[in-house]
Each structure stands twice: as C-alpha cells, then as structure tokens.
Amino acid sequence: MISNSIVYIVLAASVLALTFAFIFYKQMMKQDEGTDLMKKIAAHVRKGAMAYLKQQYKVVIIVFIVLAAIFGIMAYFKLQNGVVWFAFLTGGFFSGLAGFFGMKTATYASARTANAARKSLNSGLQVAFRSGAVMGLVVVGLALLDVSVWFLVLNGTGLLEAVGAENDLITITTTMLTFGMGASTQALFARVGGGIYTKAADVGADLVGKTEYNIPEDDPRNPATIADNVGDNVGDVAGMGADLYESYAGSILATMALGASAFATAAVEGMQFRAVLAPMLIAAVGVLLSLIGIFMVRTKENAGMKQLLGALSRGTNTAAVLIAVATFGIMYFLFGKETGEYANMWWQTSLSVVVGLLAGVIIGKATEYYTSQSYKPTQKVAESSKTGPATVIISGLGLGMLSTAIPVVTVGVAIVLAYLCANGFNIEFTAVNLSRGLYGIGIAAVGMLSTLGITLATDAYGPIADNAGGNAEMSGLEPEVRKRTDALDALGNTTAATGKGFAIGSAALTALALLASYVEEIKIALVRIAGAASDGMAKVSDTVSWTVEQAKNASLVDFMDVYSVNLMNPVVLVGVFIGAMMAFVFCGMTMNAVGRAAQKMVEEVRRQFSTIKGILEGKAEPDYERCVAISTKGAQHEMLVPSILAILVPILTGVILGVPGVLGLLIGGLATGFVLAVFMANSGGAWDNAKKYVEEGNFGGKGSENHKATVVGDTVGDPFKDTSGPSLNILIKLMSMVSIVMAGLTVTCHLL
Amino acid sequence: MISNSIVYIVLAASVLALTFAFIFYKQMMKQDEGTDLMKKIAAHVRKGAMAYLKQQYKVVIIVFIVLAAIFGIMAYFKLQNGVVWFAFLTGGFFSGLAGFFGMKTATYASARTANAARKSLNSGLQVAFRSGAVMGLVVVGLALLDVSVWFLVLNGTGLLEAVGAENDLITITTTMLTFGMGASTQALFARVGGGIYTKAADVGADLVGKTEYNIPEDDPRNPATIADNVGDNVGDVAGMGADLYESYAGSILATMALGASAFATAAVEGMQFRAVLAPMLIAAVGVLLSLIGIFMVRTKENAGMKQLLGALSRGTNTAAVLIAVATFGIMYFLFGKETGEYANMWWQTSLSVVVGLLAGVIIGKATEYYTSQSYKPTQKVAESSKTGPATVIISGLGLGMLSTAIPVVTVGVAIVLAYLCANGFNIEFTAVNLSRGLYGIGIAAVGMLSTLGITLATDAYGPIADNAGGNAEMSGLEPEVRKRTDALDALGNTTAATGKGFAIGSAALTALALLASYVEEIKIALVRIAGAASDGMAKVSDTVSWTVEQAKNASLVDFMDVYSVNLMNPVVLVGVFIGAMMAFVFCGMTMNAVGRAAQKMVEEVRRQFSTIKGILEGKAEPDYERCVAISTKGAQHEMLVPSILAILVPILTGVILGVPGVLGLLIGGLATGFVLAVFMANSGGAWDNAKKYVEEGNFGGKGSENHKATVVGDTVGDPFKDTSGPSLNILIKLMSMVSIVMAGLTVTCHLL
C-alpha cells in the first residue's frame, strides 16, 4: 500500500537539491575574485542587477497584491475556494526567490570564472558550470518544495474543508494549479522586464559602440557596457530561471491534476492517488539523476572545445538516459502489480515519458541545426551579408519561419504518441481514452523537464561565462584569458539551443495539458454553483442545467458537447482568432518596448561620447550608472502593459465569449504562440551566430561591410531571441492559468 | 415565383461588365503613346511581362493537367463526381484569362498615362483609372460568367445525373466549389510567381542602384529597371487580379453552397433555391453599382492631391452605400413575402451584408492608419532611422504585429454579428441556427466584395501609375510630368490600403464559410459511399456507420459529434498546430525565394555595372533582357515548391489525421495565416511609406544616413507586402478548397 508518506521522498529530493545548491554556492564563493579592478567591475554589475531586481519586485508585488485581493473577493462570492489566493502568492514568491538566488550566484561567479580562466580553461568551466548548477538546483529544489509541502498540507489536513471546498484529489490538484499561476505571473514579469532590460542595453551598446564608433564588445569605454552585463544577469539568469521554474512546476502540477481527473472513477483502490504521485516521483528521481550528471561534467586540464562540449553533453545525456530507465522503475513500483484494465499501464505510461524526452532532444537538435554556424542555414544568412543588411534580415526571417517545421511536427507526433501510449493505443474518442491520453501528454512534458536540474545548469552557465568575458575585457586581462572565456561563452550558446528546445517543447505540451485542467475547473465551479443554489441546479447553457451529481459525473467529452466546443461554433473560431492575435500583439508590444528603451540608451551613449572629454581615449570614466538607470526605468515602465494584457484578455474573453471562446483563445494562442516563439528564437539565434561566423573570418571578417550587415541582423535578433520569443512560452501558459483561476467567473457570467 | 431564368440577370451583369471593360480598353488604346522612346520602353516592358506570363502559364498548365487527371481518377473510383475535373479547369482558365487581360491593358496603359500626364494630372488619372477599371470589370465579369453559366448548365440540364451524381442544389453548389479550387490554384501560382518576380527585380534594382551607386529609382542606367517595371505588371496586376478573382468567386460559391445546405430542409417551397440565388444577385447588382462608381471618378482640370483622393473615394464610397441599400431591395424581392419563421429574414440577412461592408471599411481604415506616413505609427518607424537600420526593422516589425489587433477584433465582431443577424439573433447552438448563421457569414463576405469592380480598379490603377512614372523617368520627360505621375502613384498607395483591407477581411470570412462546405462535402462523400456499398452502409468511425438516409439527414452539429471535432481531441489540436506552422513555413519559403532570386539579380546588376563601359554615364545601354530573364527564371523555379506544398499538406493531413485533423489544419492555417498576413502587409507598407516620409524631407531627407536606414526597411518590406503576405490570403483558401475536393479520399482512407 502506497501512502501519503511517500511524498516525503519528493520533499527529500527538494532538500537534497537545495543542499547541493548551497554547497556549490559556498565552493564558488571560496574562489578568488581576482584583481581589484575585476572585483570593482563585478561589484558594479552586481549592484546594478540587484537594484534592478529590487525595482522589478516592487512592481510585481503590487500586481500580486491586487490579484490576490481579487481572488479573495472571488472566494467571498464563492467563485473560487479560499486557499487560492495564498497558493497563488507562494507560487510567485518561490519563483522570485529562485530568480534571486540564481542571479546572486551568477553575479558573484562572473569575476571568479574570469579569474579561474587565467589558470586554465577547465578551471573556468568548473566555476561557471557549478555556479550555473546552483541556479538549476535552486529552481527544481524550490519547485519541489512548494509542490510537496502544499500537497502534504492539502491532502493531510482538513484545510480545504475548513474553507468550504471539497477535500478530494481533484480539488487539491486544481487548487495547487493556482500556485502555478503565481509562478507564471512572476515569470512573465521577469522575462518581459528582464528581456527589455537586457536588450535595451545590448542594442544600445552595440548600435553606438560597435556600429558608430567601431569599439569592440564589452569595451570599458562604452557607457552601456555595465548595463549590458547587468542585463545578462537580470534577463538571461533571473528571467530564464523564473521562466523554467514556471514550466517545471506547471508541468508537474498540470499532470497531477490530469491524473486526479483521469482516474477519479477508477475501480482500483488508490489508482487516482498513485497517478497523482507519478509526476512528483519522476521529478524527484530526476533531481538525483541531474546531480549525478552535474558531477560528471569535468574535463582534463588541457581540454579543447570539443572535449568541453563532450563533457557537458555527457552530463546531460547520462541524466536523460538514466531518467528514461528510472521511469520504468517508478511506474512499475506504482502500477506494476495491476491486472486487467491497468495491467500494461506501467510500461505504456513510461513510453509516454520517453516520447517526451525524445521530442525534447529532437527539437534541441533541430534548433542547433538552424542556429549554429556549423551548419548551412546560418552560414547562408552570413553569406547574404554580401548584398547588405536587408538580405541578412530577409534570409534570417525566412530561416526562422522554415525552422518551425521540425519542432511543430515533432510536437505533433509526440502529442499523438504520448496520448496513444498512455491510453493503450486506443484512438477511439471516449471519455476514458481521452483523459488517460491527456495524462500521457502531461507526463511526457514532465519527462522532458525531469532533468531540468542539469539542463538549466548548462543554460545558466552561458550568461555567467558571457559576463566573465565582459569582466576579463573590461579589466584588461591578457588576450589568452579572453580567448578562454570566449570559448566558454561559445560553448554556452550551443548548449542553450538544446535548453531552448526543452523549454519550448515542454511549454506546448504543458499548455495542452492545462486545457484539460481548465475544463476540470469548470466542472468544480459548476459543482460549487449547484451546491450553493436554492434549487440545487447550475445553469450550463440556455437549455441545460445540471445538479451537483450531474456536474460531478460529466466527462470531458460531455463538456465539449454541452458547451459546443467544436470547430463549427463561431464563438470558438473567434476565440482562436483572438488567441492568434494575442501572440502577435504581445510580441509587437515587447519588440516596440525594446526599440523605445534602446533608443533612449543610444541617445545617452551618444551624449556621453560627445560630452565627456577623453572618454574614447579611455582617459575618462563613462557614467555607467546612468545607463543602468535608463535600462531599469525603461524595463519597469515597459513591462507593465504587455503583462497586464496577458492577464486581462483571457478574463475579458471569458466574460464576453464564455467557455467555448476561452478554449478557442487558449488553442489559438498556444498554436500561434508556439510557432511564433520557435520562429523568433531561431531567427534571433541564427543572426547572432551568422555575425559570429563572419567574425571568425568568413566573408570579409570583422570590420568589413559584410560584418556590419550581420551586426544589423544580430541587433534585430536580440529582442527576437531574448525578449519576445521566450516571453511567448510564458504567455501561452499564463493565459491558461488565468482562465483556470477565473473559471468560476466565466461560468457565472458571460455575454454570449 | 422565382425561376431559374433569373440567373440570366447575373449573366447579363457579366456581359455588361465585360462590354464596359472592352469599351474602356478601346478608349485607352486610342490615346497617344507619346514619344518614340516612350513607346520603345513600353514595348520592352510589355514584351517582358508577356514573356513571363507565358512561361508561368506553361508551368501552371502542367500542374492543372496533373490535378485534373487526379480528379478524373478519383471520379473513376467514385471518390468524386465526373464534372469536377472540368469545373476545376474552367476556374483556372478564367482566372488566368482575367490576369492576362488585366496585364495586357496595364502594359499598354503605362506609356499612355505618362503621356496624358504631360497634359494634366486629371488626364493622367483618367487614363490610368479607366485602365485599372478594365481589370476590375474583367475580373467580376469573368467570375460571374463562369458562375452563372455553370449554374445554368448544372441546374437546367441533367448533366450531374448523367455522370452518376445527385442532381440537387447541394451537389450542384459543392461541385461548383471545385471551380473555386481551380481559381485558387491559378491565383496561388500567379501571386507567388508574380510576387517573387517583382520583388527579386525590385530588391535587386534597389540594393545595387539606390544603395551602392546612389542612382534614383527607375533610372535607365540600372539594368534591372525594366525587370522592375515588368514585375509591377506580373505581380501587382496579374497576380492581384487572379487573387481577387479567386476571393470574389470563392465568396459567392461558398455562400451558394451554404445557402443550399442551410435551407435544404426548409418547409417553404423554393426557399433553398432563393438562398442560393442571393449571393449571385448581390454580386450582379454590385457590378452595376460599381460601374456607376467608376463613372463618378472624374475631377477638375487643376485638381490637387486632395481632390484626386476625393474623386476616387467618392466613387468607391458611393458604390458601397448603394450596394448596402440595394441589398435590402434584393433581399426583400427574394424573401420579403415570407411569413412565420422566415418573416424577418430579408432584413436580417441584409444586415449581415452591411456588417461585411462595414468590417471591410474599418479594416481598410486601420490599414491606412498603420501604413500611411500621415499618421504617427509610420512616422515613428521613420524616426527610428535615427538609430540606424536595425531599429527601423525592429520598430516596423513591432508596428506590424500591433496592427493585427484592429483587423482581428473587427473580423471577430463581424463574424459574431453576421452570424447572429442571419439566424435571428439566436446564440443557442443548434443545427438550424448554425447553418443559417454560417450563411450570414458567407453573405457578409459577398457584401464586402460586391463592389470589387471599382475597388479593384483603384487597386490596379496603382501599378499602372507606378509604371507610368517609370516610363516618364526612363524616357527623360520633364520633371513636372514625373511629379504628376508620382502624385498619381502616391494616390494609388493610399487606395491600395483600403483594397488590401477588403482582400484580407473577405479571405478570412470566405475561408470560414468554406469550413462548412467542407463538412457538406464530407456528407456527400458518405452518401455516395453508402449508396455504392453492398450493405448500404458508410463507415464513419470505428463504432459508427451510416445509411444513405442517415448521412443525408445528419446536420453540421451531428458531424462535429460523430467525428469528435472538438478542442479536446488531440488530433484536432495537432491539426491546428500544423495549420499554424504551414502559414509560417509557406512565408519562409517565399521569403527565401525572393532572397535567392534577388541575390542573383544583384550579382547580375553588379556585373553589368563593372563590365559594361560607360553604363553609369548613360553612354552605353545596359542588358535589360538578361535581368528580365533572371527574374523570370527565378520566379518560375521558386514558385513550384511552396505552391505544391500548399496542395499536398491538406491531402496528407487528411490521409493521416482524418476529418478532425483536416478541420484543425484549416482553422489553424486560417487564424495564423490571417494574422500573419495582416502583420506582413502592414509592416511592409509602413516601411515603404516611412522611406517616402524621409524622402519628403523629414529626418535628413533623401541621401542621408537615415534615408539609407529606411531603404533597408523598405527592401525587407518588399517581400512582406507583395509576396509572402498576399500569398497567405490565397493559401488559407486553397487549403480549404483542396480539402473540399479531396473529402472523398479523406473519408475513405485515413490512418488515425
């Protein structure tokens, strides 16, 4: 008999992750930070980054208070249960905390990485990678902490009953989803704000420094250099941390909810409970295996680039293979002794996990193919620089659009396979097959993200190496050191491609799983409404009303029927249109935000170059602070509108178009957002590396007209790959989360 | 009693349109073509354009023969009826013919317009506009000719029975839809091929001429100049003509099919027939009113820009208001005497038409706001040139993405309103409400396009004026004349914005209407299959089989149920993903095609500049022919793959994912394609006009660094607004058309 106490394994895994994060942090702090100049520069960056984060949290806290208050009011009017507002706050809090710890580590690690790189490439790698691992472990640790503690509290105590809600696994898991909404909201602000910050600084620094004055990247004479390095931390570290925290927690929570609903009526005792446990246990074991992977990342003293890449890949690949094997073990432990209907469930569901893992790998490889200068597509973008910046842009956009094919087809195949594996290869569209299939899709996403501890480490390692390079350049270390940090940086770019594949793929699968959770939440709302109504009936449509019993027994398929959520319903279609539009409008807003903020930065940098005497000769120090302040203000100012839009549109759609409109919105936003995100990430990545390819001496090399043309591409690509593109991942999930939390309102009042 | 003979009114309207087209053509030909040099240049352009069109038709004919053969084979295996292959061919033939006539007229008109502009602005306007009207009238005339003759043949004779099909209005109208597929296929090739041609030449000419050698647009020293002018004709005239022919015919045919199915079971005699007639009659009356509008376009001898614009707007606005009024008359004539259930139908359906007209106007205005240099958005793009080409690109992309909001919301509101008006404001989702509502959406699209005779005239007038300017420049006419042709050209750019609004909006509505036709075709296939089966049953799914009677009586809602076309079905969702991807991949292919073809052009122009002595001093003539040949070859070579992809993907989706997958594909392609098309058209338009705004003397004016930055934007925008964007309009409809024609195959064999 498997009891609630098994969740303590999850809690233990969380503590383990946090402990090792602390150990790695301490190890890193013990390293020497280098010369006084290096320390000074690192302190500058650290100060700027912390100052920004503080400002960002100030704004975010207000938004959280307002939203929590709204949930409180909704609870008062019985549109939500009374735990939601607090679960929402903890999700946001832990997500912010993960970003904070990760960034703090990163800002301490950059100078130390640069200093270690003075010794050898391997030393540099060790410091940077272990510091990245802090981020990876903090994210998975805090996520599992929040998930396991909440589950223990809600399932073990009578808290839900105390606030007047049902105390079953469906209610518990859907309540916990609101914790996911907290994480999503925090992540959106972190991604959008951080993304605007980093790209305003980067674009601003490049446009004036590189293009107009021909001074190299990270040159201390450029007033925006510090802001640019701060940006790497607040955008690529804190922003990405919050982003993946949300993906990770979201996929686990959504799958728990799907498990609760898929096996709610299972005749076998404890089936539902074990289905809810499965995603948590996979994630917990994933932590352990990620740790093993992290310790495998070490290389010989005189390792070259290839060995470095090999070292990182060895770590991530080992973790992935181990989790695939372990999954079969976990599933056998949970479901291996079943007979009859569920006899094959353990290996079938395991296959869904493997499908998810494989899909992530394929998307990662495709991303690498389209964005690495080792392959033809990016080389062709570089070649198009022969005919100027316009053709660089055209070919980069063309590449990005074409590059959507493999990820979309892969996710499409993965959806079908994960679905079919989990329901015993039964394509017939029945309520049981559907809910078990959806559970398979959810658990595929969990599988994809189960090794996040190490994949995020390779991701977060990138900006640390980048900053180390900046530090080395600004503090005038020997060219040999800069060369080493460049190698570390380039390595980070390659691994980041794989990381992006997992992030995008899992976002699509998780969002899909959240659709089912939305319908489940509609059901809970109807049960609540019927229970509170004097006649015991909840109005579903003009012609249909349900009793508590009817609502409880309704399947996903019944909901599709009664709400006419089919593709002939014009309300659904309008929802799909609005969803598709939302993805574009959101991107347009963030692109424009970067454009505006960058323009201010450009003006400031130009002003400093023309008014501060001796700045170009390196005799006078530029006013770094002012550039930091401009980026901070710009990001703060610009992140609010798109983020609030992402929260408001699903609410308004619900109030106007009702349930079918919301589902249309979520599908439209998911499909278009997913494709748009891949397009933007890959176009941006290809432009970046096309520039690097030219810098490596191809098509005229650095300083040539061709190089200038690729710099234009890189500059356009900056907001593509680091602001708008990644924000879309969160947008599609946040819209689902908001809809889930607002389901009670949508059911109660809607215009159409 | 309203009989079949009323269709002769439609035939008469068609003959009227064609007669006036012929008269306008003759009038234009009587004008003097100007100096010998002007004649020579015009002949060059004409020759190049005709040569290209011939080449394009050669390729297209092969595709048509292959497809017609496939339809023939399908008819043999009872997967289609035996008329389809021929209807398909006539659709393609008439569409091609419309493009051919329009382009022939345009190439004769350009020198004559330039020559008339030597006299006065008004004379130039008259020649150009009347020549544009030839195109408008030929398109509507040929479309109505094909529609009315086919209807008379199919409804009057026993042709369908002779080929073994049913002889009812549903079969007649769905068979006629295949004629729409012919038009769509032709249009796709014309748009893609013409779009690649024109932009390869334009981009190539600009990149070397303007950017590298600083010689003005249309300078005879530029070897790509003739190709550029040819491009205006094959892309903007022939391509657009085929495009709108398809939209126009498609909306009428789809609405006829919707009318046939919505009123198939109506108890009132002749109701179904009258519902089928309505779209044809609205279109027929629209021809007459367009003619009135065309005759209203005249202005005083010394008219300024404002008066010119006023003259054009007066024509189009009058036609639009008149058609709104006339619609109430037509509907009263058809349905005014009904009582009971249909008592209010005449004015309710008329309101749907008005909704369509209004939506078109709003989208047109929004397009103008976002793309005209008279408004802030485009001015801001121009301003961003202060910080170089990268920010021009970023802000232009941002603008385009934001600009999708108004059109999408407008279309969304129009869908809901047209739907509700037509079904008597009944939101309840029943089979009757649904089919009547969908008929309303279709007829809104017909309303939107009913004045195409004049709106297309204002569209086609643009490239004629553009070419006239080219001719004036190349033949060295006085600057005053060039100024006048520039004014005419600028006027064309503004009216084109409105035209684009109608094209995009109607495409969205028509595609939506085609979804219902797809389901109708599935029904016909099932009836056919059941009729041919030995047990009289057609297999619908693993658990459901239908008799002929059951299939015949099934409503749209029943089909949604039996095929599980709801948003929880993973197959539907995968379809939506693939559809969204298709829009991007298709754009990526066409963007890359332009990039590749332009690169070849750039190399050739550079080669000529460096090898032909005296070319830059104007002493030696460039080798224009060679540039024309490069564009022709490039376009031919590049148009094939994306076009064939557009045909293959819906077929493959059907064979693999079945009916729910296809419907998902169509919705995904429609929603994403629509938004993407608006984005690309508006970004492209804004970049073009931002450049013009700088050229008008703002932010440094012509020749400044800022100007160069906006030229980069304009160059990127070229394939956006003239190749990829408009092709999407056709893509979304062609995919529907292909699915409709292939419905028999999808029903019979599919993997999932």
Please summarize what this structure is:
The structure is a homodimer of 752-residue chains. Chain A is mainly alpha-helical and 752 residues long.
Distinctive features:
two-stranded antiparallel ribbon; homodimer; about 750 residues; 2 strands; mainly alpha; 22 helices
Protein described:
Two copies of one chain form a homodimer. With 752 residues, chain A is mostly helical. Helices cover 82% and strands 1% of the residues of chain A. Chain A is built from 22 helices and two strands. The first copy, chain A, has helices at 7-30, 36-76, 84-119, 121-156, 159-162, 169-213, 225-262, 271-296, 305-335, 345-371, 376-383, 389-402, 405-422, 431-449, 452-474, 479-532, 548-553, 556-562, 570-611, 624-695, 705-741, 743-748; strands at residues 537-539, 545-547. The first copy, chain A, has a two-stranded antiparallel ribbon. In chain A, strand 1 and strand 2 form a beta hairpin. In chain A, helix 6 runs antiparallel to helix 7 (225-262), helix 9 (305-335) packs antiparallel against helix 10 (345-371) and helix 11 packs antiparallel against helix 12 (389-402). The longest helix of chain A is centred in the C-terminal third of the chain and has 72 residues, at 624-695. The mean pLDDT of chain A is 90. At the A-B interface, helix 6, helix 12, helix 13, helix 14 and helix 16 of A face helix 6, helix 12, helix 13, helix 14 and helix 16 of B.
